[in-house]
Amino acid sequence: MDTTQDLNIFLQEDSLIDFSSPAVKALAESLSRGAKSDEDIARHCFMYVRDNINHSGDHKDDITTLKASEVLKHSTGWCYSKSILLAALLRANNIPAGFCYQRLSCSEYQEDVYCLHGLNAIYLKEYGWYRIDARGNKDGVDAQFMPPVEKLAFELEENEFDLEEIYSAPIKEVVHALKTNKSYDEMVDNFPDIKKED
């Protein structure tokens, strides 16, 4: 992961990472209460999104949320949307947060299909960049927050790979998919994907 980037770009608000919206701002403040470090705050934010926001695929929720305030309002989102809410909560607490992606098999939805999986990288004062995955746990998925040890939702298997960059905003393929596909079935048929460059 590139650690030379200016951290300020990972603290910005935009139309999707809308951390000034009242509900997101209030939640960010409540999650920081009593925390003694940026690591404590980040853990609280991670656990909230992982455990309190449904993963739309796991729950077959027939709504596609995009911006942070929508994800919080409806308490559901695909991994991409959950990563947007988590970034908003962290940035509201002045913790740099970016977006990472993996290309994984989507066999639980369709055979022989690959798609992007969305997660976050955060910058902690003690450890630097650290990847976390708040998609939500279930049988066979156990993502945790235990820096500096990385415990993501999925281990890479054959033909799967990490996109190495830490992005300051969700990538266009993901945003397009979330804007275009409004139901569970539409998303499953049109997951965002990027093929590896040779």
Précis, in short:
The chain is an alpha+beta fold. It has helices at residues 22-32, 38-52, 56-59, 68-74, 79-92, 172-180, 184-189; strands spanning 54-55, 76-77, 97-105, 114-124, 128-132, 144-146, 149-151, 161-167. The protein has one domain: Roll (C8orf32 fold).
Identify the notable features of this structure and list them briefly.
single chain, 198 residues, alpha+beta, C8orf32 fold, 4-stranded antiparallel β-sheet, two-stranded parallel sheet, 8 strands
Structure explained in plain terms:
- By secondary structure, this protein is α+β, with helices and mostly antiparallel strands.
- It has a single domain (7-189), classed as C8orf32 fold.
- The chain is built from seven helices and eight strands, in the order ααβααβαββββββαα.
- The strands form three sheets. Strands 5-4-3-8 form a four-stranded antiparallel sheet. The chain has a two-stranded parallel sheet with strand order 1-2.
- Helix 1 packs across helix 5 (79-92) and helix 2 runs antiparallel to helix 5 (79-92).
- The longest helix has 15 residues, at 38-52.
- It is globular and about 45 Å long.
- InterPro entries: Papain-like_cys_pep_sf (IPR038765), Transglutaminase-like (IPR002931).
- This is Transglutaminase family protein.
- Residues 25-134 form the Transglutaminase-like domain.
- It comes from Sulfurimonas lithotrophica.
- Pfam families: Transglut_core.
Strand order of the largest sheet: 5-4-3-8
Distance between the amino and carboxyl termini: 19 Å
* CATH structural fold name: C8orf32 fold
Average pLDDT value?
95
Please tell me the total number of domains.
1
Percentage of β-strand residues: 15-25%
Rg measurement, Å: 16 Å
Biggest β-sheet strands, sense, barrel: 4 strands, antiparallel
Give the second-level CATH assignment, the architecture. Answer: Roll
Q: What is the number of E strands?
A: 8
**What sequence of helices (H) and strands (E) makes up the elements?**
HHEHHEHEEEEEEHH
- Note the total helix count: 7
Tell me the name of the CATH class: Alpha Beta
Rough outline: globular
Q: Can you give the helix content as a percent range?
A: 25-40%
Uncertain regions: pLDDT < 50 for 5+ in a row?
none
Query: Structural class per helix/strand content?
Result: alpha+beta
Domain Transglutaminase-like: 25-134
Protein name: Transglutaminase family protein
Organism: Sulfurimonas lithotrophica
InterPro entries: Papain-like_cys_pep_sf, Transglutaminase-like
